[in-house]
Design goal:
The protein is built from 12 helices and 14 strands. With 362 residues, it is of the alpha/beta class.
Length: 362
């Protein structure tokens, strides 16, 4: 059987509406202490909800569809060529049916294999590696991987009908942190045994740690009648201190484990896409002693992130940031790209290494 390699042949992303600056968040909920706001480091984000009324102006499925169509157009691939569709999200529209199948229907792919991952910010890196492994069996030729996140509906109850000064600081923090959006990549299996997606790695490294992020409500953890009687049906909790302290270690482990799995030298990495923090953030954590692996320090290339302009995007973050870097001309043929995703809810990291073959600014 002739050897094949899986290539990234298209990228795309979608962000809903106009950017929402920190001045708008401050008018809705109140300001953050200067040191907290500085640590978060986010200046704007996009939401599917109207920040004044809370009405939905878009949906998880809608964003995923638009990001997917952008990636397909970039690749010159028709929707009906997709035979493997994987979507990662922590904010599905319904418990059932899976959001991936709603996207499949809107795209018009026809019958194809579908899979949905609930893995937060690590999900799309995991999905790319799962797709690669499936495609190398020869079962699939064209895969569409999507990460999509709609967090703002869970934020609306925090501030709607509440005076800005009455919103607790701990409830303001998620409003400043999270954005909505979707990113996508098209993968193609082609004959050859060099370049393309090299491989990936993933691990949950904090099973005994308390969650850094929790979304409580709407599940089966408690009787539904008790949940309905609560002040809020859905509550988003963020342990900023734990997330800020441990997230750099997640990134370091993602980089180290992925390079080890691919038997790759960090000195060969040209671009490291880290959607929730730059190398400056990593260096500060290293100086504090919270990063116990050093492979990332040996990467001579650029660290790329768009956290400040996009907000924390969960599953969508890695692919939105990747698409931003491609559009900016920061990634091109012949470069080795390391894509990292991390999830602070239960401390999961993932990474995927790609020898880039897609033409620049096609």
């Amino acid at each position: 059987m002739r050897a094949h390699r899986v290539h990234v042949v298209g990228t795309g992303s979608h962000l809903p509406g106009e950017p929402i600056g920190n001045d708008i968040i401050e008018s809705l909920a109140g300001p953050l202490p200067e040191d907290v706001g500085g640590d978060i480091g986010i200046e704007s984000r996009h939401w599917i909800i109207d920040p004044v009324t809370g009405e939905h102006r878009d949906s998880n499925t809608g964003m995923a569809e638009r990001a997917a169509r952008a990636a397909l157009a970039d690749a010159g691939v028709e929707a009906d060529e997709v035979d493997l569709l994987i979507l990662a999200t922590a904010t599905p529209e319904y418990p059932l049916p899976p959001t991936v199948n709603l996207v499949q229907e809107r795209l018009g792919t026809g019958p194809c294999a579908t899979l949905e991952l609930r893995s937060g910010g690590a999900g799309t890196a995991q999905a790319m590696e799962l797709a690669r492994l499936q495609m190398l069996t020869g079962a699939y030729r064209t895969a569409l991987v999507i990460g999509s996140e709609a967090t703002s509906p869970a934020l609306a109850p925090i501030f709607l009908d509440v005076p800005a000064g009455k919103v607790r600081i701990r409830d303001r923090i998620p409003m400043y942190m999270f954005g909505d959006g979707a990113g996508a990549v098209v993968l193609r299996a082609e004959p050859g045994d060099s370049d393309g997606v090299v491989g990936g790695a993933s691990r949950a490294i904090g099973p005994d740690r308390a969650p850094g992020i929790q979304v409580i409500g709407g599940g089966t953890h408690a009787p539904i009648n008790q949940q309905l009687a609560a002040k809020r049906l859905v509550t988003l909790k963020v342990d900023v201190v734990s997330a800020g302290h441990f997230a750099p270690s997640l990134v370091a482990h993602a980089i180290g484990d992925t390079l080890a799995a691919c038997e790759a030298d960090p000195a060969g990495v040209d671009v490291c896409v880290v959607p929730e923090g730059s190398s400056g953030w990593m260096r500060a954590a290293s100086d504090e002693g919270s990063v116990d692996r050093d492979e990332w320090t040996k990467i001579p290339g650029e660290f790329s992130d768009s956290l400040a302009r996009r907000g924390a995007l969960g599953c969508a973050g890695p692919l939105v940031c990747l698409d931003d870097a491609v559009r900016a001309g920061d990634i091109g043929p012949g470069q080795r790209v390391l894509l990292v995703g991390i999830e602070s809810s239960k401390w999961v990291h993932a990474g995927v290494l790609v020898d880039w073959t897609m033409e620049e600014n096609r």
